[in-house]
Amino acid sequence: MLKYQQTATEIEAYIEQHALQQGDKLPVLEQLIRQFQVSKTTMTKALELLERKGIIFQVRGSGIFVRKTNRKGYIKLFSTQGFKQNLVDHDIASNVLTFELIPCPDEIAQNVGSSPGEMVYYIKRIRYIDGNILCLEESYYRQAIVPYLNREIIEQSIFEYLETALGLNIGFSDMYMHVGKLTASIAGHLKLETGDPGLTIETVFHLTNGRPFDYSVITYHYEHSQFVVQANGLYL
Amino acid sequence: MLKYQQTATEIEAYIEQHALQQGDKLPVLEQLIRQFQVSKTTMTKALELLERKGIIFQVRGSGIFVRKTNRKGYIKLFSTQGFKQNLVDHDIASNVLTFELIPCPDEIAQNVGSSPGEMVYYIKRIRYIDGNILCLEESYYRQAIVPYLNREIIEQSIFEYLETALGLNIGFSDMYMHVGKLTASIAGHLKLETGDPGLTIETVFHLTNGRPFDYSVITYHYEHSQFVVQANGLYL
């Protein structure tokens, strides 16, 4: 973790510890620099990161303010982190239904950027949140990039293993979302009825060097999932 | 529009004109600076903006590469732009069902950050994409911030009017998403059956100074909407 990322984490902790609310003002830049004992450059980068993450907003000539949603029980929807990191306030568990090393199916190959027949780890899991079924997840990891996985790892956080044990740098992701009626098979896994609503999110995860390494398809239990996105004005 | 934003727009146009694909390499930094005739600072900021928007990715020591999803027909899901700007490749139309100036309902007031009873413009519209029903939208604009709206404006792009005619600076937004079964009323508007699946997105839009000015609730027609998010590694 780089210095400015560390500083950003400390400021987040400060916001939590002081129970700051939406619109509360943070100390001015000079004071933050003194308080966290970093350079102006580091503090500026830390604040930019927090702004992109939707933790603060900065108003020129006015100050730095806290953003905080007051709704509870919403999952933060951004994808380059695994569930575990997104949902630190919740009890997340997994039940592994399938775990095998297989030649990549043709219809999957183009999504994960592999040659057809290239070996991939196929993992099918039910994920639970606070004891309720959250989703059914099917994912495909390219063995060329992720040489080894085992049951112990996949029952925990796969992404944490990729980063800490394999030293992979997880970069960007493309997410595709649609809503539809559940098939009998998926409904069965989620303990819902065929035809019930389901949100499906397909994600292609890339390393920072641009290589795709994981394709996952997640269907959420509509009664146990709701999402929040703290977007900012980057796109204007 | 600031200089670096202008440059970013020109680079996007360059990518389109040359029909560059996912993974294609852009010219090196020095060449981009010469080609677009801007300073190094401006070009660096333009590239950072494009990276945040998911248009490019930069690999240290290797180069600048294009990100481009090869799936067609997906709506880009980020919220601070209106539909019109997000969906330039599509024919977007609106049918205004209700347009009135009302005292803010109690259950809406806390979402839009207004006092109960404060006057708001309430607008209920059906939005169409390429001739199909895309969604039902209900939105509440605070008159204290948006003093005037009329039918002509709301049949077009409200956000464009807010920015260009009123000079408002639209900042960040909080989006809340959930999936459920359609009520009879909403299903009727979408020409679907009661109990069919629906994605509902509530959004609170803020000005850059942090003041909320618009609360909207959109329910999408599940057969006519699918979304793409090009996320990046900001959160790691």
Automatic annotation (TrEMBL), chains A, B:
Keywords: DNA-binding, Transcription, Transcription regulation. InterPro entries: Bact_HTH_transcr_reg, Chorismate_lyase_/UTRA_dom_sf, Tscrpt_reg_HTH_GntR, UTRA, WH-like_DNA-bd_sf, WH_DNA-bd_sf. Gene3D superfamilies: Chorismate lyase-like, Winged helix-like DNA-binding domain superfamily/Winged helix DNA-binding domain. Residues 1-69 form the HTH gntR-type domain. CDD domains: WHTH_GntR. PROSITE patterns: HTH_GNTR. Pfam families: GntR, UTRA. PANTHER family: HTH GNTR-TYPE DOMAIN-CONTAINING PROTEIN, MANNOSYL-D-GLYCERATE TRANSPORT/METABOLISM SYSTEM REPRESSOR MNGR-RELATED. This is GntR family transcriptional regulator. It comes from Exiguobacterium antarcticum. The lineage of its organism: Bacteria, Bacillati, Bacillota, Bacilli, Bacillales.
